[in-house]
Each structure stands twice: as structure tokens, then as C-alpha cells.
Amino acid sequence: MMDSLKLIDKVILTTLKTITITSFVFLTILISANVFVRFVPIASLHWFDEIIELLYAYLVFYGAAALWISHEHFSVGDWIEKRIKNIRMRHVYRMIIELLVICFALIFFYYSLRLTILAQDVTNVFAIPKKVLYSCLPFSGGIMIIYSIRNIAVEIIGIIRSQQGRGETLYSQRHK
């Protein structure tokens, strides 16, 4: 079972990283082409803004979800956690942080899903439905919620194991 979950994690993370890196590469190419065309006007890039908007949204939100999964996002609380000597209290602290984080993720998911569902307009040049542009928001929010639930479960297991005298658990193993 755990091997299957690890494989799913790996596939999701690899997919998100691939989307993020691909978006970054295409953004770089398009922005460079736009700068070049401004100095050497050989073509019109009137469609440029639509694709940039799509790529930038995918880069930011799928990238954020990838960082969320791998715990590589910026964290202010690391300095506090290091000062907590009691292992059980460290797990309690992390669980409180994850509960606050999941509140954000739930609000983000709700409003981004609502925005995506209610979007009726299309882009000017390619007539891409705005729903396609906005779809990365609830999708990445959903991923954040799922992994926050996982993190809360890991901390609960850590609290239980620390009561039984087993010491550090899954979270510390992930961060070594």
C-alpha cells in the first residue's frame, strides 16, 4: 500500500514539475521573442498576452503545488520548531500549523473553483475559454488540501508514537 502511495506521489510531483518547467521554458522563449520582435519588427505577436497569461498561471500555481508536496516552500516557522525540545510538542506545533494551512487551502480552493465555474468569457485571439486558464487554481488547491490532510495524519501518528516513546517519525524522516 505504501509503495503505491509513494508511486502516486512521485507521478504527481513529476507531472507538476514537468508542467512548471515547461511553462518556464516557453515563457522564456516567448518573452525573448517578444523583445526581439520589438527591435526587429519582422512579425506581430498580437496573441502574445493570452499565452503568457496561461503559462504564467500554470507556472505559479502548479509550481506552488509541487513545492507544497515536497515541503520546499518558504516556511517562517522553522526557527520556532527547532526551539521545541519535546518531540510530542513539536508534532503538536506542526499539526497546528498544518490546520491553519489547510484553512487557507480550503478557502483558496472554494473561491478558485467558483471563479473557474463562473467564468464564461474567452480570450480574444485564440478564443480559449477562461476556464482553461483558471483551471490550474482549483486543481492546485485540491492537491494542497490532499497533501495537508496527509501532513496532519503524519503529525497525529507522530504524536501517538511519541507518547509510546518511539521518538521522531515520518515527518523528520522526510526532512533529512
Please identify the structural class as seen in this structure: mainly alpha
Tell me roughly what share of residues is in helical segments: over 70%
Q: Count helical runs.
A: 7
Biggest sheet statistics: none
How many separate domains?
A: 1
- Determine the N-to-C terminus distance: 23 Å
Query: In one word, what is the shape?
Result: elongated
Classify the beta-strand content into a percent band. Answer: under 5%
Query: What's the total count of β strands?
Result: 0
Low-confidence regions: none
Q: C-alpha Rg, in Å?
A: 21 Å
> Would you tell me the overall average pLDDT?
88
Please provide the ordered H/E string of secondary-structure elements.
HHHHHHH
Describe the 3D structure.
By secondary structure, the chain is mainly α. It has one domain. It contains seven helices and no strands. Helix 2 packs parallel to helix 6. The chain starts with a helix and ends with a helix.
Outline of the structure:
The protein is mostly helical and 176 residues long. It has helices spanning 2-39, 48-70, 78-81, 87-118, 130-134, 136-163, 170-174. The chain is elongated.
List the keywords:
elongated, mainly alpha, single chain, 176 residues, 7 helices
How does the SSE layout of this entry go?
Layout lengths: L1 H38 L8 H23 L7 H4 L5 H32 L11 H5 L1 H28 L6 H5 L2
Helix pairs in contact: 1-2, 2-6, 4-6
